[in-house]
Amino acid sequence: MELPIAALDSAFSGGVDDFPALLRKRGLLAPVASVPNASANAAGVQQTQATTILAFKFAGGVLVAGDRRATAGNTVVYDRADKVLEIDRHSIMAIAGVPATAWEMARVLEHSFQFFRRTQLQEMSVDGKVRALSKLLRDNFGFVMQGVGIVVPIFATFDTSGEGGARLYFYDAMGAQFEVTDYAATGSGSPAVRGILYYENHWGKKPLADLKEDDAVTVALRALDTAAEADTATGGVDRNAKIFPVIKIVSRDGINTLPDKQIAALFKRGVA
Amino acid sequence: MTEEPYRWVEAIANRREYIETQLASGSPIAAVSFRDGILFVTRGRARQKLFEIYDRIAMGGIGHPGDIERLRMAAIELASTEGFTRSAADVSLRRLAFYSLSPVLKAAFEQVYGAPYLARMLFAEIGDTPANDLFLRIEFDGAIATNGGLLGDARREFGVVSGTAASTELMETFLAREHNPAATLQQAFTTASNAWIVGSMALSESGTRELPDAEAMAAYRGEHAASNQVEAALLERGSQTAIRYRTLAEHETRSLSAS
């Protein structure tokens, strides 16, 4: 699309270039280094990784939860990472993989949806949103092949148009999207989480879809605690420092981030 | 032509006259600060005139739809790029208008072999209090009128845009007299709708310099209320979310019009 400002004056930046970009335009700063055609592991780079996210549909919408740990190899880098990111009023992207890439993707996605709404004067459709994330993942696949920046997200949204309702997707690193009816989990702790969610869905007191909010949160906390038990890269619940997973719920009313207090109370009652 | 200064001035004057004629029928837009936000009100014929630009910025435009569209897109692109590379807090209406849109409009207007923008726009940016709300009217030649508050200027908590200067002035006189920034949504809606009537009456009776009396306004409202659809949009002050813009639904404007 032609920007009228550029058409009028090619030297006019409109003040939107960031300062490094302006310096580069004038030849005062070295260009951005291109990614070498070698694997990052060969260069001895330990990438920071975020792990274990889960999402499932319940009576009140979709619950999305993520532990707080970020690791690089055997090192715990950060214990308060937020892997459950709000993209717009009704969409959440949860990330497992390299946060540097994932947070940038989330930022691009958030701004793309808003840009679409503002310019086109209508909300982007759920299919359009799902596809937008898929495309970002595919654009990133070159980096993944070089051993940097793998991201495996979950996307949860509530389709407010017509009878849409709660929609839940997970992706692979190449950008294939898979819509799920009940639950999804990705990241290093996900085998344990999937086991628990499968069990709860089939043989629990109620299928996941019929759970009330408190019970749904309890299931999510139990699943993450179980994942942390065997997987060092999953933080689970830090009982000493009182660090709880991030839990958000998407429904017709929008996104509700559960306060730590509520999670702590449910943890005490149903998990600890 | 441009080698001869006199002919250039003449060409610019002709062009100004031509654009003013083209804009003269534009339906007025009034925007007012009130307790809970900024309310934009207009009555339209067919097409949308109020738009969301960014989290805290809205725009109303009159003129050629194609030109409004190009300027709207430019404003959104500038604000979005800024918001993406830096942060939403760094997107400022003042910079957008003074340093980005105004030079472009001025250049297009003065390049006499190219087409000027047939557009006049009203922008508003919501602040924490009505005293921090900003209103800017940008003309087709890049001139900008603000709601004052600088250098001891009397500050006005509203902004208007209309087809003619006379109509704009009357609307401003009316709002300066009637508008209260502590108003509720209902009061703000009534005042802004009345300002639209004042502006619209001034457009149909060219030459009027006086505010119409209440009876004349009521009669005019009676004649035009049915034929013109109300379009209204809000920038919400207390909203918990970053995005403050919201279009008022038809049932909302209907119930606000009724009281």
Write the layout of secondary structure elements.
The complex is a heterodimer of chains A (272) and B (259).
Chain A (H helix, E strand, L loop, with lengths): L3 H5 L10 H7 L23 E2 L2 E6 L2 E6 L3 E3 L2 E4 L5 E5 L2 E7 L1 H22 L5 H14 L1 H5 L5 E9 L5 E7 L5 E4 L2 E4 L3 H14 L9 H18 L15 E6 L2 E4 L2 H11 L2
Antiparallel strand pairs in A: 1-4, 2-3, 2-11, 3-12, 4-5, 6-7, 7-8, 8-9, 9-10, 12-13
Chain B lengths: L4 H19 L5 E6 L2 E8 L5 E5 L2 E7 L1 H21 L7 H18 L8 E7 L8 E5 L5 E3 L11 E4 L3 H14 L6 H20 L9 H11 L4 E8 L8 E3 L2 H9 L1
Antiparallel strand pairs in B: 1-2, 1-8, 2-9, 3-4, 4-5, 5-6, 6-7, 9-10
Describe this structure in words.
The complex is a heterodimer of chains A (272) and B (259). Chain A contains 8 helices and 13 strands. The longest helix of chain A has 22 residues, at 99-120. Chain A has one domain (49-270): Aminohydrolase, N-terminal nucleophile (Ntn) domain (Glutamine Phosphoribosylpyrophosphate, subunit 1, domain 1), CATH 3.60.20.10. In chain A, helix 6 runs antiparallel to helix 7 and helix 7 crosses helix 8 (260-270). With 272 residues, chain A is of the alpha+beta class. In chain A, a hairpin with a 2-residue loop joins strand 4 and strand 5 (75-78). Chain A is 35% helix and 25% strand. Chain B is of the alpha+beta class and 259 residues long. Chain B has one domain (26-258): 4-Layer Sandwich (Glutamine Phosphoribosylpyrophosphate, subunit 1, domain 1), CATH 3.60.20.10. Chain B is 43% helix and 22% strand. In chain B, a hairpin with a 5-residue loop joins strand 6 and strand 7 (144-146). The longest helix of chain B is centred in the N-terminal third of the chain and has 21 residues, at 65-85. Chain B starts with a helix and ends with a helix. The mean pLDDT of chain B is 91. Classes of the chains: A alpha+beta (272), B alpha+beta (259). Chain A binds chain B through residues 1, 3-5, 8-9, 12, 14-18, 89, 107-108, 111, 114-115, 117-119, 121, and chain B through 48, 51-54, 70-71, 73-74, 76-78, 80-86, 95, 99-100, 103-104, 107-108, 241, 243.
